[in-house]
Design brief:
Layout lengths: L8 E9 L2 H11 L15 H4 L15 E9 L10 E8 L16 H13 L3 E8 L7 H11 L7 E4 L1 H9 L20 H7 E2 L2 E2 L2 E12 L9 H7 L3 E2 L10 H9 L3 E2 L6 E2 L2 H16 L17 H5 L9 E5 H9 L5 E3 L11 E9 L4 H14 L2 H11 L2 E2 L10 H9 L1 E2 L7 H15 L5 H11 L5
Parallel strand pairs: 3-4, 3-5, 9-12, 14-16
Antiparallel strand pairs: 1-2, 2-4, 5-14, 6-7, 8-12, 8-13, 8-14, 8-15, 10-11
Helix pairs in contact: 8-9, 9-15, 9-16, 15-16
């Protein structure tokens, strides 16, 4: 890549095209997902191969959104090599379709990218693609498929969730980051942010925005979140109880708080009869009291009931709801009155699971990797991160960038632990999930469900 020391740059145009297919795909991914995501299924690479262009009148692929910002010398007398391209794939949850102003001229995200190019004083194009975070056309699905048939079309830099980061490392798509970042960038992160970004002790991602799973409730006087207190108050609970191949995160947090554990190497869950029975007995009592029912199994993530929560004029039949911090902050921005609390547990507070959107470098080109590293460092400046986190109502990965007036969330980030990937659950997680289903549907007692779960993984009660 060719850079020039003193070049005045002019942005010819920032073009944004959102086809109907993109709007539908992105709308599905715009609501906050649960903290653990499932590994995507790779799809065809038509959207990558359909013409990545940076001209001022580009042919936009119909399956994705593109901002093509071509930056050229102000003087047309300059000659030299053709401009290089920095390809950025941006997940739609960090620039939701209901916030088009972020990508408009002068918008928060467009301005950050333009300012970076100006600061670089170089001649290169920015090929910016807004892509869905889940489903067949998601970032990870496209990375997986394109790496086999069109590696040159891969982005130079993107953002992934924890489980996708693990998959990207496994497939050789994510590169170690430390040599491409400015010194000290990782020193200012929350501890959980650094944990999320490491794989086998090596830094493969750099967290940008964070999410934690917690409860919200209506009663400002409610401070006790033990199982006994919930049953005593008669709090009606809403949480996403379904999960296809593992145990849902709310139940998992409650199980770990009751004394459950992972294997010594942290790779799999262990079914502990007493811990499992403690949580199942709570739900058995809650079912009997009418505080929960099998309808919870209709929800896989908080995004599934986010539209219900957004209806601020509707009287909800729930007193406490499990949400991600991003969903909570959006509800607060809409003027709703909710109070954050930890996930209810036998001890009063379960572990706080955190996930994050992490910068990842995927370029096979050494010079573009260097440029991608400088772009990440630029975006991680605490004041820039602070302003963008505020614009999208999410939690930044650096305490210095936190401006949200929610001390409880700051406390959560100080003690949070990385979300446990679905693959780590194994047969134990499925057995625990089946036990919860049996209790919620009333097909088994808590004692019988716990015993069946232990037996299914070869243990004994």
């Amino acid at each position: 890549m060719t850079f020039r020391n003193r070049v005045d740059l002019a942005v010819r145009g920032v073009l944004l095209t959102l086809a109907a297919g993109v709007l539908a795909a992105c709308a599905a991914g715009s609501a906050e997902s649960d903290l653990a995501t499932t590994a995507p299924t790779p799809d065809a690479t038509a959207d990558i191969l359909s013409g990545m262009t940076t001209s001022t009148t580009p042919t936009m692929p119909s399956t994705q959104a593109v901002i093509a910002a071509q930056l050229t010398p102000a003087s047309t007398q300059e000659t030299g090599p053709a401009p290089e391209v920095l390809r950025i794939w941006w997940p739609e949850p960090l620039a939701r379709v209901d916030q088009p102003e972020l990508l408009a001229e002068g918008g928060a995200l467009a301005a950050l990218i333009e300012a970076f190019v100006q600061a670089e004083a170089g001649v290169f194009d920015i090929d910016f693609r807004l892509k869905s975070a889940t489903g067949p056309g998601s970032i990870m699905a496209t990375l997986s498929s394109a790496s086999m048939v069109a590696p040159s079309a891969l982005p130079d830099v993107t953002l992934l969730r924890r489980e996708d980061l693990l998959l990207a490392v496994q497939q050789g798509l994510a590169l170690p980051l430390e040599s491409y970042l400015a010194t000290g960038v990782t020193d200012t992160l929350y501890a959980v942010a650094l944990d999320l970004s490491q794989v086998n002790g090596q830094l493969y991602g750099l967290p940008y925005m964070l999410d934690v799973l917690h409860l919200i409730h209506r009663d400002p006087a409610a401070e006790d979140w033990t199982f006994g207190a919930i049953l005593g108050r008669g709090d009606r609970l809403l949480f996403p109880a379904a999960r296809a191949n593992s145990v849902n995160n709310t139940f998992l947090a409650q199980y770990l708080a009751a004394g459950g554990s992972l294997s010594e190497d942290g790779s799999t869950l262990v079914v502990d009869h007493d811990a499992l029975l403690t949580v199942l007995e709570f739900y058995e009592a809650a079912v009997e009291a009418g505080l929960v029912n099998a309808s919870l199994l209709d929800y896989t993530t908080p995004a599934d009931y986010a539209p219900l929560l957004a209806e601020s004029e509707v009287e909800l039949p729930y007193d406490a709801v499990a949400v991600t911090s991003g969903l909570y902050l959006r509800l607060m921005a809409e003027g709703q009155a909710w109070y954050p609390a930890p996930i209810a547990a036998d001890s009063g507070e379960g572990p706080v699971f955190a996930n994050g959107w992490m910068w990842v470098i995927t370029s096979p080109d050494p010079e573009r990797r260097e440029l991608a590293g400088r772009f990440i460092t630029w975006m991680m400046d605490f004041s820039r991160q602070r302003d963008y986190a505020a614009a999208i109502a999410m939690l930044p990965s650096q305490p210095a960038a936190m401006t949200i007036d929610a001390p409880v969330l700051s406390d959560f980030l100080q003690t949070a632990v990385p979300v446990i990937p679905e693959a780590a659950g194994g047969s134990a997680a499925r057995a625990m999930q089946n036990a919860l289903i049996a209790v919620l549907t009333g097909t088994s007692s808590a004692e019988d469900a716990a015993a069946a779960a232990v037996a299914s993984v070869g243990g004994s009660a």
